[in-house]
Design goal:
Rossmann fold; 2 domains; eight-stranded mixed β-sheet; four-stranded antiparallel β-sheet; globular; binds S-adenosylmethionine
Amino acid sequence: MAKAHPDAVLTGLDLDGQAVAAARERLPGADIRQADFIEADESLPHASFDLVITNPPYVRTQVLGAAAAARLAARFGLKGRIDLTHPFVAMAPDLLRPGGVLALLCSNRFLTTRAGVNVRGLLSERLAVREVFDLGDTRLFEAAVLPAIVVAVKGAQGVARFASAYEVPQEAPEGDLYAALTGQDDTVVRFGARTFAVSVGTLARGAPEQPWRLTNPDRDRRHAHVRSRTWRTLGELARIRVGIKTTADPVFIGDRWDTLPPEHSPEPELLRPLLTHHDVRAWLPPRPPRTQVLYPYLDLPTRTVVDLSAHPRAAAYLGLHRARLEGRRYLRAAGREWFEIWVPQRPSMWREPKIVFPDISPEPRFTVDRSGAVVNGDCYWISVPELVAPGVTCDDLANLVVGVANSAFGARFYDEVCGNRLYAGRRRWITQYVGLLPLPDPTTAAAREVIEAVGSLTAGDHGQLPRLERAVRAAFGEL
Ligand SMILES: C[S@@+](CC[C@H](N)C(=O)[O-])C[C@H]1O[C@@H](n2cnc3c(N)ncnc32)[C@H](O)[C@@H]1O
Protein backbone atom coordinates (compact mmCIF):
# COMPACT_ATOMS: atom_id res chain seq x y z
CA MET A 1 0.00 0.00 0.00
CA ALA A 2 2.88 2.33 0.85
CA LYS A 3 4.15 1.80 -2.70
CA ALA A 4 0.77 2.29 -4.35
CA HIS A 5 0.11 5.46 -2.33
CA PRO A 6 3.49 7.08 -1.75
CA ASP A 7 1.85 10.12 -0.15
CA ALA A 8 -0.11 8.06 2.37
CA VAL A 9 0.60 8.88 5.99
CA LEU A 10 0.94 5.60 7.86
CA THR A 11 0.59 5.28 11.61
CA GLY A 12 1.06 1.92 13.32
CA LEU A 13 0.94 0.74 16.92
CA ASP A 14 1.92 -2.48 18.64
CA LEU A 15 2.89 -3.32 22.18
CA ASP A 16 5.48 -5.80 21.01
CA GLY A 17 8.99 -4.48 20.34
CA GLN A 18 9.78 -7.10 17.71
CA ALA A 19 6.58 -6.43 15.79
CA VAL A 20 7.38 -2.71 15.88
CA ALA A 21 10.94 -3.28 14.63
CA ALA A 22 9.70 -5.50 11.78
CA ALA A 23 7.08 -2.94 10.75
CA ARG A 24 9.60 -0.09 10.82
CA GLU A 25 11.90 -2.08 8.56
CA ARG A 26 9.14 -2.84 6.09
CA LEU A 27 7.57 0.60 6.12
CA PRO A 28 10.35 3.17 6.20
CA GLY A 29 8.91 6.62 6.76
CA ALA A 30 5.83 5.34 8.58
CA ASP A 31 5.13 6.46 12.13
CA ILE A 32 5.36 3.13 13.98
CA ARG A 33 4.96 3.40 17.74
CA GLN A 34 5.51 0.87 20.46
CA ALA A 35 2.40 1.77 22.36
CA ASP A 36 -0.87 0.50 23.77
CA PHE A 37 -3.54 1.17 21.17
CA ILE A 38 -6.32 1.23 23.75
CA GLU A 39 -4.53 3.90 25.75
CA ALA A 40 -3.47 5.84 22.62
CA ASP A 41 -6.91 7.25 21.96
CA GLU A 42 -5.92 10.80 22.93
CA SER A 43 -2.73 10.84 20.87
CA LEU A 44 -4.39 9.73 17.62
CA PRO A 45 -6.27 12.31 15.53
CA HIS A 46 -9.98 11.50 15.57
CA ALA A 47 -12.10 11.32 12.42
CA SER A 48 -9.03 11.54 10.23
CA PHE A 49 -7.98 8.06 9.07
CA ASP A 50 -9.04 6.76 5.66
CA LEU A 51 -8.31 3.19 6.64
CA VAL A 52 -7.87 1.31 9.88
CA ILE A 53 -6.38 -2.17 9.48
CA THR A 54 -6.34 -4.28 12.60
CA ASN A 55 -5.69 -7.85 13.61
CA PRO A 56 -6.43 -7.33 17.28
CA PRO A 57 -5.41 -9.76 20.00
CA TYR A 58 -8.00 -12.30 21.04
CA VAL A 59 -7.64 -12.43 24.81
CA ARG A 60 -10.59 -13.53 26.84
CA THR A 61 -11.92 -12.18 30.11
CA GLN A 62 -10.44 -15.08 32.10
CA VAL A 63 -6.95 -14.05 30.98
CA LEU A 64 -7.66 -10.33 31.02
CA GLY A 65 -8.83 -10.41 34.64
CA ALA A 66 -12.20 -9.26 35.93
CA ALA A 67 -11.04 -5.74 36.89
CA ALA A 68 -9.52 -4.97 33.47
CA ALA A 69 -12.60 -6.38 31.72
CA ALA A 70 -14.91 -4.25 33.89
CA ARG A 71 -12.88 -1.10 33.12
CA LEU A 72 -13.04 -1.78 29.37
CA ALA A 73 -16.75 -2.55 29.56
CA ALA A 74 -17.48 0.75 31.31
CA ARG A 75 -15.29 2.81 28.99
CA PHE A 76 -16.58 1.35 25.73
CA GLY A 77 -20.15 0.50 26.75
CA LEU A 78 -19.55 -3.24 26.28
CA LYS A 79 -21.67 -6.01 27.78
CA GLY A 80 -21.29 -9.66 28.74
CA ARG A 81 -18.04 -11.44 28.17
CA ILE A 82 -15.37 -9.06 26.94
CA ASP A 83 -12.32 -9.97 24.91
CA LEU A 84 -9.60 -7.60 23.73
CA THR A 85 -11.00 -7.54 20.20
CA HIS A 86 -13.96 -5.50 21.45
CA PRO A 87 -12.14 -2.27 22.43
CA PHE A 88 -10.13 -2.37 19.20
CA VAL A 89 -13.35 -2.48 17.18
CA ALA A 90 -14.98 0.10 19.44
CA MET A 91 -12.20 2.63 18.77
CA ALA A 92 -12.22 2.35 14.98
CA PRO A 93 -15.36 4.43 14.24
CA ASP A 94 -13.96 7.43 16.16
CA LEU A 95 -10.66 7.28 14.31
CA LEU A 96 -12.14 6.97 10.80
CA ARG A 97 -13.17 9.95 8.71
CA PRO A 98 -16.66 9.77 7.17
CA GLY A 99 -16.38 7.22 4.35
CA GLY A 100 -13.27 5.68 5.95
CA VAL A 101 -12.86 1.91 5.99
CA LEU A 102 -12.18 -0.60 8.75
CA ALA A 103 -10.47 -3.85 7.73
CA LEU A 104 -10.70 -6.25 10.64
CA LEU A 105 -9.09 -9.67 10.87
CA CYS A 106 -10.32 -11.47 13.98
CA SER A 107 -11.69 -14.75 15.31
CA ASN A 108 -14.85 -15.85 13.51
CA ARG A 109 -16.49 -16.68 16.82
CA PHE A 110 -18.10 -13.27 17.07
CA LEU A 111 -20.34 -14.17 14.11
CA THR A 112 -22.26 -16.77 16.06
CA THR A 113 -21.53 -16.72 19.78
CA ARG A 114 -23.43 -14.91 22.52
CA ALA A 115 -20.20 -13.15 23.51
CA GLY A 116 -19.98 -11.81 19.94
CA VAL A 117 -22.85 -9.41 20.67
CA ASN A 118 -20.40 -6.52 21.28
CA VAL A 119 -18.64 -6.83 17.93
CA ARG A 120 -21.87 -7.48 16.03
CA GLY A 121 -23.43 -4.44 17.71
CA LEU A 122 -20.47 -2.12 17.05
CA LEU A 123 -20.22 -3.21 13.43
CA SER A 124 -23.93 -2.72 12.88
CA GLU A 125 -24.57 0.46 14.81
CA ARG A 126 -21.44 2.51 14.31
CA LEU A 127 -20.28 1.27 10.91
CA ALA A 128 -21.76 -0.27 7.78
CA VAL A 129 -20.49 -3.74 6.94
CA ARG A 130 -19.70 -4.25 3.26
CA GLU A 131 -18.02 -7.65 3.25
CA VAL A 132 -17.59 -10.61 5.60
CA PHE A 133 -15.31 -13.54 4.92
CA ASP A 134 -15.59 -16.48 7.30
CA LEU A 135 -12.33 -18.24 6.52
CA GLY A 136 -13.33 -21.21 8.65
CA ASP A 137 -10.75 -23.94 8.85
CA THR A 138 -8.77 -22.85 5.77
CA ARG A 139 -5.73 -22.08 7.95
CA LEU A 140 -4.82 -19.22 5.64
CA PHE A 141 -3.21 -17.61 8.68
CA GLU A 142 -1.28 -19.15 11.49
CA ALA A 143 -3.68 -18.60 14.32
CA ALA A 144 -5.12 -20.52 17.22
CA VAL A 145 -8.60 -19.35 16.28
CA LEU A 146 -10.56 -19.62 13.05
CA PRO A 147 -10.33 -16.28 11.29
CA ALA A 148 -12.87 -13.93 9.75
CA ILE A 149 -12.28 -10.73 7.82
CA VAL A 150 -14.75 -7.87 7.98
CA VAL A 151 -14.64 -4.80 5.76
CA ALA A 152 -16.85 -2.00 7.07
CA VAL A 153 -17.20 1.68 6.22
CA LYS A 154 -18.16 4.70 8.25
CA GLY A 155 -21.15 5.45 6.07
CA ALA A 156 -24.63 4.41 5.07
CA GLN A 157 -25.86 0.87 5.62
CA GLY A 158 -26.28 -1.35 2.59
CA VAL A 159 -26.25 -4.98 1.62
CA ALA A 160 -23.17 -6.81 2.86
CA ARG A 161 -21.59 -9.67 0.97
CA PHE A 162 -20.80 -12.83 2.93
CA ALA A 163 -18.49 -15.65 1.86
CA SER A 164 -17.35 -18.66 3.86
CA ALA A 165 -14.98 -21.58 3.31
CA TYR A 166 -14.99 -24.84 5.27
CA GLU A 167 -13.17 -28.07 4.63
CA VAL A 168 -15.30 -30.93 3.33
CA PRO A 169 -14.40 -34.60 3.08
CA GLN A 170 -14.64 -34.94 -0.71
CA GLU A 171 -12.60 -34.66 -3.88
CA ALA A 172 -12.74 -31.64 -6.17
CA PRO A 173 -10.67 -30.13 -8.96
CA GLU A 174 -7.79 -27.87 -7.95
CA GLY A 175 -9.06 -24.28 -7.80
CA ASP A 176 -8.31 -20.73 -6.77
CA LEU A 177 -9.65 -20.28 -3.26
CA TYR A 178 -9.44 -16.50 -3.42
CA ALA A 179 -11.37 -16.44 -6.71
CA ALA A 180 -13.97 -18.74 -5.16
CA LEU A 181 -14.34 -16.53 -2.06
CA THR A 182 -14.80 -13.42 -4.19
CA GLY A 183 -16.94 -15.12 -6.87
CA GLN A 184 -20.68 -15.23 -7.46
CA ASP A 185 -21.57 -18.85 -6.87
CA ASP A 186 -21.20 -21.59 -4.30
CA THR A 187 -18.30 -23.84 -5.32
CA VAL A 188 -16.19 -26.71 -4.05
CA VAL A 189 -12.45 -26.30 -4.68
CA ARG A 190 -9.32 -28.20 -3.83
CA PHE A 191 -6.60 -25.99 -2.40
CA GLY A 192 -3.36 -27.77 -1.61
CA ALA A 193 -4.22 -31.15 -0.15
CA ARG A 194 -7.63 -30.11 1.14
CA THR A 195 -11.06 -29.45 -0.34
CA PHE A 196 -13.27 -26.54 0.72
CA ALA A 197 -16.93 -25.82 0.24
CA VAL A 198 -17.16 -22.11 -0.49
CA SER A 199 -20.55 -20.50 0.06
CA VAL A 200 -21.35 -16.99 -1.10
CA GLY A 201 -24.35 -14.83 -0.43
CA THR A 202 -25.36 -11.89 1.68
CA LEU A 203 -25.18 -11.21 5.38
CA ALA A 204 -28.43 -11.91 7.21
CA ARG A 205 -28.63 -10.28 10.62
CA GLY A 206 -31.26 -9.18 13.06
CA ALA A 207 -30.70 -7.57 16.44
CA PRO A 208 -27.09 -7.76 17.72
CA GLU A 209 -28.18 -10.61 20.03
CA GLN A 210 -28.86 -12.70 16.92
CA PRO A 211 -26.03 -14.53 15.14
CA TRP A 212 -24.89 -13.42 11.71
CA ARG A 213 -25.67 -15.86 8.94
CA LEU A 214 -24.92 -16.25 5.30
CA THR A 215 -27.97 -16.31 3.15
CA ASN A 216 -28.77 -16.50 -0.54
CA PRO A 217 -32.04 -16.78 -2.45
CA ASP A 218 -31.72 -20.54 -2.71
CA ARG A 219 -31.28 -21.01 1.05
CA ASP A 220 -34.03 -18.50 1.84
CA ARG A 221 -36.47 -20.42 -0.32
CA ARG A 222 -35.48 -23.74 1.21
CA HIS A 223 -35.70 -22.45 4.79
CA ALA A 224 -39.08 -20.86 4.19
CA HIS A 225 -40.27 -24.18 2.84
CA VAL A 226 -38.85 -26.09 5.83
CA ARG A 227 -40.50 -23.58 8.18
CA SER A 228 -43.85 -24.17 6.50
CA ARG A 229 -43.45 -27.91 7.25
CA THR A 230 -42.18 -27.45 10.81
CA TRP A 231 -44.50 -28.66 13.57
CA ARG A 232 -42.22 -27.45 16.39
CA THR A 233 -38.56 -26.70 16.80
CA LEU A 234 -36.57 -28.85 19.20
CA GLY A 235 -36.23 -25.86 21.53
CA GLU A 236 -40.03 -25.52 21.63
CA LEU A 237 -40.50 -29.21 22.37
CA ALA A 238 -37.73 -29.88 24.84
CA ARG A 239 -35.39 -28.45 27.39
CA ILE A 240 -31.77 -29.03 26.37
CA ARG A 241 -29.47 -29.31 29.37
CA VAL A 242 -25.72 -29.52 29.61
CA GLY A 243 -24.18 -32.42 31.54
CA ILE A 244 -22.68 -32.11 34.99
CA LYS A 245 -19.77 -29.79 35.75
CA THR A 246 -17.79 -30.66 38.85
CA THR A 247 -15.12 -27.88 38.69
CA ALA A 248 -12.79 -30.48 40.27
CA ASP A 249 -12.85 -33.37 37.78
CA PRO A 250 -9.71 -35.14 39.08
CA VAL A 251 -11.40 -35.45 42.49
CA PHE A 252 -14.90 -36.46 41.37
CA ILE A 253 -14.36 -38.32 38.09
CA GLY A 254 -12.23 -41.41 37.58
CA ASP A 255 -11.98 -44.82 36.03
CA ARG A 256 -9.85 -46.44 38.73
CA TRP A 257 -11.93 -46.08 41.88
CA ASP A 258 -11.33 -49.77 42.67
CA THR A 259 -7.61 -49.16 43.11
CA LEU A 260 -8.09 -46.84 46.11
CA PRO A 261 -7.31 -48.21 49.58
CA PRO A 262 -10.54 -49.64 51.05
CA GLU A 263 -10.84 -46.96 53.73
CA HIS A 264 -10.86 -44.23 51.04
CA SER A 265 -12.90 -46.09 48.48
CA PRO A 266 -16.31 -44.33 48.20
CA GLU A 267 -19.40 -46.44 48.80
CA PRO A 268 -20.69 -47.92 45.51
CA GLU A 269 -24.08 -46.22 45.84
CA LEU A 270 -22.37 -42.83 45.41
CA LEU A 271 -20.38 -43.87 42.34
CA ARG A 272 -22.45 -43.45 39.19
CA PRO A 273 -21.54 -44.40 35.60
CA LEU A 274 -20.66 -41.21 33.72
CA LEU A 275 -21.24 -40.85 29.98
CA THR A 276 -18.66 -38.73 28.19
CA HIS A 277 -18.24 -37.84 24.52
CA HIS A 278 -16.10 -41.00 24.15
CA ASP A 279 -19.15 -43.16 24.82
CA VAL A 280 -21.80 -41.44 22.71
CA ARG A 281 -22.38 -42.56 19.12
CA ALA A 282 -25.14 -41.96 16.62
CA TRP A 283 -28.18 -44.25 16.79
CA LEU A 284 -26.77 -47.07 18.94
CA PRO A 285 -27.03 -46.85 22.72
CA PRO A 286 -23.92 -45.33 24.32
CA ARG A 287 -21.07 -47.71 25.08
CA PRO A 288 -20.91 -48.65 28.76
CA PRO A 289 -18.92 -45.76 30.23
CA ARG A 290 -15.44 -46.34 31.59
CA THR A 291 -15.63 -43.46 34.04
CA GLN A 292 -17.65 -43.07 37.19
CA VAL A 293 -18.49 -39.92 39.06
CA LEU A 294 -18.66 -39.56 42.81
CA TYR A 295 -22.12 -38.01 42.91
CA PRO A 296 -22.99 -36.92 46.44
CA TYR A 297 -26.73 -36.39 46.00
CA LEU A 298 -29.91 -38.19 46.95
CA ASP A 299 -32.08 -39.51 44.14
CA LEU A 300 -34.59 -36.64 44.40
CA PRO A 301 -35.89 -34.17 41.82
CA THR A 302 -34.20 -31.27 43.58
CA ARG A 303 -30.56 -31.08 44.55
CA THR A 304 -30.20 -32.63 48.04
CA VAL A 305 -26.74 -33.57 49.28
CA VAL A 306 -26.16 -36.89 50.99
CA ASP A 307 -25.36 -37.02 54.68
CA LEU A 308 -21.63 -37.69 54.55
CA SER A 309 -21.64 -39.30 57.99
CA ALA A 310 -23.71 -42.12 56.46
CA HIS A 311 -20.94 -42.67 53.88
CA PRO A 312 -17.74 -42.76 55.93
CA ARG A 313 -15.47 -43.95 53.11
CA ALA A 314 -16.66 -41.26 50.68
CA ALA A 315 -16.23 -38.77 53.56
CA ALA A 316 -12.66 -39.99 54.09
CA TYR A 317 -11.89 -39.76 50.39
CA LEU A 318 -13.35 -36.25 50.04
CA GLY A 319 -11.54 -35.24 53.22
CA LEU A 320 -8.23 -36.00 51.49
CA HIS A 321 -9.12 -33.34 48.92
CA ARG A 322 -10.80 -30.89 51.26
CA ALA A 323 -8.35 -28.02 50.73
CA ARG A 324 -8.77 -28.20 46.97
CA LEU A 325 -12.55 -28.51 47.14
CA GLU A 326 -12.87 -25.65 49.62
CA GLY A 327 -10.74 -23.55 47.26
CA ARG A 328 -13.91 -23.35 45.13
CA ARG A 329 -15.12 -20.37 47.10
CA TYR A 330 -18.10 -19.78 44.78
CA LEU A 331 -19.73 -22.90 46.28
CA ARG A 332 -19.58 -21.47 49.78
CA ALA A 333 -20.73 -18.08 48.44
CA ALA A 334 -23.76 -19.85 46.95
CA GLY A 335 -24.54 -21.38 50.35
CA ARG A 336 -23.54 -24.89 49.28
CA GLU A 337 -21.45 -27.68 50.83
CA TRP A 338 -17.72 -27.86 50.17
CA PHE A 339 -17.97 -31.43 48.80
CA GLU A 340 -20.61 -30.69 46.16
CA ILE A 341 -20.15 -30.66 42.43
CA TRP A 342 -20.85 -27.29 40.82
CA VAL A 343 -23.57 -28.26 38.33
CA PRO A 344 -25.14 -31.60 39.37
CA GLN A 345 -28.35 -31.06 37.34
CA ARG A 346 -31.48 -32.90 38.57
CA PRO A 347 -30.39 -36.07 40.39
CA SER A 348 -33.56 -38.12 39.88
CA MET A 349 -33.70 -37.39 36.13
CA TRP A 350 -30.64 -39.51 35.36
CA ARG A 351 -32.67 -42.70 35.91
CA GLU A 352 -35.02 -41.75 33.06
CA PRO A 353 -34.24 -42.29 29.36
CA LYS A 354 -32.50 -39.31 27.82
CA ILE A 355 -31.33 -38.11 24.43
CA VAL A 356 -27.58 -37.44 24.62
CA PHE A 357 -25.22 -35.74 22.17
CA PRO A 358 -21.61 -34.59 22.46
CA ASP A 359 -20.71 -30.92 22.58
CA ILE A 360 -18.10 -31.27 19.81
CA SER A 361 -18.19 -33.81 17.01
CA PRO A 362 -17.71 -33.74 13.22
CA GLU A 363 -20.99 -35.55 12.59
CA PRO A 364 -24.24 -35.46 14.56
CA ARG A 365 -24.15 -38.12 17.28
CA PHE A 366 -27.60 -38.09 18.88
CA THR A 367 -28.73 -41.19 20.71
CA VAL A 368 -31.04 -42.34 23.48
CA ASP A 369 -29.50 -43.61 26.71
CA ARG A 370 -31.59 -45.91 28.87
CA SER A 371 -28.84 -47.02 31.22
CA GLY A 372 -29.49 -44.43 33.93
CA ALA A 373 -25.95 -43.05 33.64
CA VAL A 374 -25.06 -39.49 34.57
CA VAL A 375 -24.04 -37.25 31.62
CA ASN A 376 -20.77 -35.33 31.71
CA GLY A 377 -20.42 -31.63 30.84
CA ASP A 378 -18.88 -32.44 27.44
CA CYS A 379 -22.34 -33.62 26.32
CA TYR A 380 -25.88 -32.25 26.30
CA TRP A 381 -29.03 -34.18 27.18
CA ILE A 382 -32.81 -34.02 26.95
CA SER A 383 -35.00 -35.98 29.36
CA VAL A 384 -37.31 -38.19 27.29
CA PRO A 385 -40.33 -38.09 29.68
CA GLU A 386 -40.32 -34.31 29.27
CA LEU A 387 -41.21 -34.73 25.57
CA VAL A 388 -44.95 -34.34 25.53
CA ALA A 389 -47.43 -34.01 22.67
CA PRO A 390 -50.99 -35.27 22.18
CA GLY A 391 -51.34 -38.65 20.48
CA VAL A 392 -47.61 -39.53 20.48
CA THR A 393 -45.49 -41.30 23.07
CA CYS A 394 -42.41 -39.67 24.47
CA ASP A 395 -40.30 -42.54 23.09
CA ASP A 396 -41.60 -41.90 19.56
CA LEU A 397 -40.88 -38.20 19.96
CA ALA A 398 -37.34 -39.05 21.10
CA ASN A 399 -36.85 -41.20 17.99
CA LEU A 400 -38.17 -38.40 15.80
CA VAL A 401 -35.70 -35.95 17.34
CA VAL A 402 -32.79 -38.38 16.96
CA GLY A 403 -33.80 -39.18 13.36
CA VAL A 404 -33.94 -35.58 12.18
CA ALA A 405 -30.86 -34.51 14.15
CA ASN A 406 -28.66 -37.35 12.83
CA SER A 407 -29.85 -37.08 9.22
CA ALA A 408 -27.95 -35.35 6.40
CA PHE A 409 -30.90 -32.92 6.25
CA GLY A 410 -30.42 -32.10 9.95
CA ALA A 411 -26.66 -31.57 9.64
CA ARG A 412 -27.12 -29.29 6.65
CA PHE A 413 -29.83 -27.31 8.39
CA TYR A 414 -27.59 -26.95 11.44
CA ASP A 415 -24.68 -25.69 9.33
CA GLU A 416 -26.86 -23.20 7.54
CA VAL A 417 -28.40 -21.68 10.65
CA CYS A 418 -25.36 -21.94 12.89
CA GLY A 419 -22.45 -21.72 10.48
CA ASN A 420 -19.86 -22.21 13.21
CA ARG A 421 -17.38 -24.99 12.68
CA LEU A 422 -14.11 -25.82 14.33
CA TYR A 423 -11.01 -27.33 12.76
CA ALA A 424 -11.21 -30.42 10.56
CA GLY A 425 -14.95 -30.23 10.06
CA ARG A 426 -15.72 -30.64 13.74
CA ARG A 427 -18.93 -28.96 14.73
CA ARG A 428 -19.74 -27.48 18.07
CA TRP A 429 -23.34 -28.40 18.87
CA ILE A 430 -24.38 -25.12 20.46
CA THR A 431 -27.70 -25.54 22.26
CA GLN A 432 -29.14 -22.27 21.01
CA TYR A 433 -28.84 -23.61 17.44
CA VAL A 434 -29.67 -27.23 18.21
CA GLY A 435 -32.88 -25.75 19.65
CA LEU A 436 -33.76 -24.42 16.19
CA LEU A 437 -33.81 -27.90 14.65
CA PRO A 438 -37.17 -28.31 12.87
CA LEU A 439 -39.40 -31.27 13.65
CA PRO A 440 -42.22 -32.47 11.40
CA ASP A 441 -45.70 -33.22 12.70
CA PRO A 442 -45.19 -36.58 14.44
CA THR A 443 -48.62 -37.84 13.43
CA THR A 444 -47.93 -37.66 9.67
CA ALA A 445 -47.03 -40.77 7.67
CA ALA A 446 -43.56 -39.45 6.82
CA ALA A 447 -42.79 -38.74 10.48
CA ARG A 448 -44.01 -42.24 11.42
CA GLU A 449 -41.63 -43.59 8.83
CA VAL A 450 -38.77 -41.61 10.42
CA ILE A 451 -39.69 -42.98 13.86
CA GLU A 452 -39.77 -46.56 12.59
CA ALA A 453 -36.47 -46.22 10.72
CA VAL A 454 -34.84 -44.86 13.88
CA GLY A 455 -36.21 -47.87 15.79
CA SER A 456 -34.37 -50.19 13.37
CA LEU A 457 -31.19 -48.09 13.34
CA THR A 458 -30.98 -48.02 17.12
CA ALA A 459 -31.40 -51.81 17.08
CA GLY A 460 -28.27 -51.97 14.90
CA ASP A 461 -29.77 -52.27 11.41
CA HIS A 462 -27.50 -49.79 9.65
CA GLY A 463 -29.07 -50.69 6.30
CA GLN A 464 -32.04 -48.51 7.29
CA LEU A 465 -30.05 -45.31 6.83
CA PRO A 466 -31.20 -44.60 3.23
CA ARG A 467 -34.82 -45.15 4.35
CA LEU A 468 -34.29 -42.71 7.22
CA GLU A 469 -32.75 -40.05 4.96
CA ARG A 470 -35.62 -40.42 2.46
CA ALA A 471 -38.23 -40.25 5.19
CA VAL A 472 -36.75 -37.08 6.76
CA ARG A 473 -36.60 -35.35 3.38
CA ALA A 474 -40.17 -36.42 2.63
CA ALA A 475 -41.34 -35.14 6.03
CA PHE A 476 -40.12 -31.68 5.04
CA GLY A 477 -41.45 -31.92 1.49
CA GLU A 478 -37.99 -32.28 -0.04
CA LEU A 479 -38.52 -35.01 -2.56
C1 LIG B 1 -3.17 -11.29 16.53
S1 LIG B 1 -1.63 -10.45 16.71
C2 LIG B 1 -1.37 -9.69 15.17
C3 LIG B 1 -0.35 -10.38 14.39
C4 LIG B 1 0.01 -9.67 13.08
N1 LIG B 1 -1.13 -9.58 12.19
C5 LIG B 1 1.13 -10.47 12.40
O1 LIG B 1 0.85 -11.13 11.41
O2 LIG B 1 2.22 -10.44 12.94
C6 LIG B 1 -2.05 -9.15 17.76
C7 LIG B 1 -0.99 -8.13 17.94
O3 LIG B 1 -1.53 -7.11 18.79
C8 LIG B 1 -0.52 -6.67 19.69
N2 LIG B 1 -1.22 -6.09 20.84
C9 LIG B 1 -1.83 -6.71 21.86
N3 LIG B 1 -2.41 -5.83 22.69
C10 LIG B 1 -2.15 -4.61 22.17
C11 LIG B 1 -2.48 -3.29 22.59
N4 LIG B 1 -3.21 -3.07 23.67
N5 LIG B 1 -2.04 -2.27 21.84
C12 LIG B 1 -1.29 -2.48 20.73
N6 LIG B 1 -0.98 -3.71 20.28
C13 LIG B 1 -1.38 -4.76 21.00
C14 LIG B 1 0.29 -7.91 19.98
O4 LIG B 1 1.59 -7.55 20.39
C15 LIG B 1 0.28 -8.62 18.61
O5 LIG B 1 1.38 -8.23 17.85
